[in-house]
Design brief:
Elements: H1 3-54, H2 58-75, H3 80-97, H4 100-113, H5 126-138, E1 150-151, E2 154-155, E3 161-163, E4 168-174, E5 182-189, E6 196-204, E7 207-212, E8 221-229, E9 235-239, E10 246-251, E11 256-258, E12 270-272, E13 286-299, E14 309-310, E15 313-314, E16 320-335, E17 340-349, E18 383-394, E19 403-424, E20 442-445, E21 451-477, E22 482-497, E23 499-511
Parallel strand pairs: 3-10
Antiparallel strand pairs: 1-2, 2-4, 4-7, 5-6, 5-8, 6-7, 8-9, 8-10, 11-12, 13-16, 13-23, 14-15, 16-17, 17-18, 18-19, 19-21, 20-21, 21-22, 22-23
Amino acid sequence: MSALHLNTLRVAARLIILASVGFGALTIATPVQHVYAQEAKMKSLLEGAMEDYDLVMLDEAEEKLEEAVALAASKGISGEPLAKVFVMLGIVRFARDRDEASTEQAFIAAIEAYPKIVLNPVYETPELAAIFEGARKKAKPPENVSDVPDVDGFQHTKLISAQGKQPLTIDVQVSENIPVFRMFVHHRRFGEESFQSTEMSPTSATAFAGTIPQDLVTTSQLDYYIEALDRAGNVIAGVGSKDEPIEVLVRGGGDVTTDKGDGGGGGGDIDIDPVEPETPTEKDYVYLMLAGGSGLGFLPGGTPTARPVSGTEPRSVNPGVAATIGHAMVDLGWVINSSMRLGLYARWQFSPPQDFSLVPEEQKTGSFPSTREECLGLGLSGDCLLGLKYRYFFSNKDPKATRFYSSVGFGVGRVRHWVQLKENALLSNGQDNQECAGKTLANGQDSAGNNVQYCLVRDTVRTGWGHFGLGGGVTVPLGSVVEIVADTYLMFLTLDQTSINLDANVGLNFRF
């Protein structure tokens, strides 16, 4: 047989072997990828149910959770993903029906699916905690469940609880065939988006340990994941991930002990003294904001409030910037959840009183309410706004941290813009204009081009009576239920006279 023919046979054999291996890998990878896709869908349904629960849409939340349970049953998914769904299902059923039996049944199913599951600290209450503990006593966890899962050549016990305000040590056992050069544990507190990194130190040829400082173990939950790097800085193995970190329940008190064992798993059993967890989420239902500030607006034109005419001619204000000096605001509303608030606000703007009774009837302008009536007819000097405002807090959801928010709103009322008008020093009958008495006179021309002397008098332009706006601000905590608030609000006023106005406010916010 010729050498060319032998080479051809060798190439063909190699191609057949590679094709077989590739097909085998495809048939193995496809089911795994499918399982990951189904677990991702379950997670999406769970997150949607939690959002519905926060909005008190309990029926919708239950439908999503039951769909997730059915999906898990049809695809053979169990473990922690299914347990989280059952825990939330119990919470939703208890909130809707106060049915302890159906709630306990859901908790039992959660514990039997994943014995280490715990109540979500965001939703935990004394009643739910008692039902959950009763379910744990009745549940029958599966046998032969390893406490030390082996992930990518790692042996690491996933921590489920930790003592608050105490250093937290994390251990990993590594296979000798993994060329680990450096090891990191990435961790974050509840409500934080970014992870901090702590390098783990080798404790033996195949073991690493890292400690999270006690000042970072201070919230109701801690997330972490572990990455091993080679000499080139590439991640070659790990436990957990940035998108799917390991969740640790942090309790403010009680005894938490860790048995290091023989080093085979870097961890052991954790005994927890049941203590109500410290939670950073807002448990308050009402907020009250008291603030004061000032504003600046733009007038595209307008009619003065108290002096709508000059002589016999209608008077108008030129376009320009006009101040809206001095106002106080009260905002009272509902804390929907840690991210959303909805409230009613009242804004009273101070201004010197104006005698509208001197304005002739035929010169009065304005619509609901009449420009002659101050502060929605309440008789207060100045003008008022009433409205509804929605605030959304983003980035950090911990009310004990500095947080930023955006806002939108609408309402009724008026804003009074301060303007200066030119008033002739002499009346049409040749007598002195008493409004210019004691004021500095300047030379100018009237509308007919005649040389006149005039003084500047203060008046206002009242815009509204409808408005809508958008804005934002920042809150800085002073205590557990008190915050300093710096707020801005850009309003567009229309329906009678039009203007744009930007308010800047500073005040205190209280939650109850």
